[in-house]
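>> received
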Amino acid sequence: MDTIRLTMAQALLKFLDRQYVSYDGIETKFVKGVMGIFGHGNVTGIGEALERTPGSLTFVQGKNEQGMTHAATAYAKQLNRRQIYACTTSIGPGALNMVTAAGTATVNRIPLLLLPGDNFASRQPDPVLQQLEVGHDYTVSATDCFKPVSKFWDRIVRPEQLLSSLLHAMQILTDPANTGTVTLALPQDVQAEAYDYPASFFEKRVHYIERQQPSADALHRAVELIRSKHRPLIIAGGGVKYAEAAVDLARFAKTFGIPVAETQAGKGALPWDHPLNVGGVGVTGSLAANKLAKSADLVIGIGTRYSDFTTSSKSAFGTDAQFLNLNVNRMDCAKLEGVPLAGDAREAIRMLENILKDGGYTASYKEDEIRSLTAEWKREVDRLYALDREDGFAQTHALGVINETIGEEAVIVCAAGSLPGDLHRLWRAGGTNTYHMEYGFSCMGYEVSGAFGVALAEPKRDVYAVVGDGSYLMLHSELVTSLQEGRKFTILLFDNHGFQCIHNLQRANGSDGFGNEFRYLEEQTGRYTGEALTIDFAAHARSLGAASYKAGNAEELREALLAAKTETRTTLIEISVLAGTNTDGYESWWNVGVPEISVSNKVNAAHQEMRNKLAQARVY
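>> returned
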């Protein structure tokens, strides 16, 4: 047997450089490169391998471990999970900084390969710098924290263990039903140990991502269920996009006259002005979609996880409604006691369509019912997009200006705060993969990092991070990386002086407002009830090397957007908006748990309102 003597780190990179995926006959190199921040736990192992023998792998220098890992996640998400960046860090705090981003990728089912350094396997220098010392279990290290947020976890304590571990890792990373974060913890000393690896291990390896077809029995049950219903509603989730089934979904909906509502991950699968696109559904849904959800006798969920935002905490649908769950993930198929249809979205849609056409099925909506609801909603969006307030710049008005100015092929990236709700309800998505929303984890700090990842994935497109001031303050380090890499994107920073989304939520549930606005501390009260903090975000961006503009009204914003298009480097537009001018309601509800007992009558009343809503919701 031919062998190649390599360090474990050198072998790891050599293997990753030879991995490919094949989808619908199109072959793509799977690992583009490695993002990393070096410390003592990886600089002489993986660091040496990346310096001396990287092969065709590229290296991107991160500025914050969580930030670069979000960027890697966004990169893979934007490319429909067909290509990834791995991420490497040192041990201890460097590794732990990736845990939040690991959870983000796993919840959103995005392939992410993490390579954190770990304690010395030999224990010769024990305890090494940044090592945890856990008395009851001395095998525990910081990297054990990745176990709950990883789909696959391993610690490579001998160089030959890499052989079997990498094969398992690749199986998870390329599995549409079970992908997420894969963590390979790499002890500092083992990274540098040599082993005679089989040469065959480094041959080109193609992982075939096959479209799973539903079984004949499951398909029969699904068809019979649809035929028995008159008012079906499709909910399109992210699985529609990943399966590249948008064209098939549009044809299916038109053929049978079935309206299509969207989750955050599924938004944009149909153009906003498609006659059967009724908009977002659930807590942040449109009035059209939420009205149809209430009266639907069948909900056909395609590629959706049915999060509480999609189901309005299980209150969005009638108690007699049934569910048909089309998903590659069998756990999702079982939700809401639905009839499962396990399979690839595109294949299952096509098979259902062929059978239903033979029987002449069509939904039984009243003439012009869907058109009337979508027209009503269009008028409401027009109103909100043009909302002119004398006391300040409304957030919805700002979004309207942005939507009209940046172009249909521009990509927006968002994740947290009140902006995802407004975008889900109002944003008119036109082009393919132009709506990039991380709302599985809704991780504050994803926006700037994610926009950088999208800019890496699609360098010819205009990319915009839509972010609130609170989220920007949490994490913006990869702005510097974008300047370093020459990958421009534009940050649209909505400054409303605090965590106003949660401020609104708490006040809607009996609070007078506590701890969420960016105000000075008043000594008399001991609370943040003083004047609002003034932060010059535009100046901050300029200090990092970015271009920047400010806007406080529609005209200034339009001018800033046009000017930003001419910039050649990452640009920030600071947009001053009036707090509380986001959207809310539209026959939706979100169960956040209100205290059963309080000294506040407002809280007690809010608790009773919660109990009333719960009485109308499904129990499970």
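>> DSSP finds 24 helices and 23 strands in the chain.
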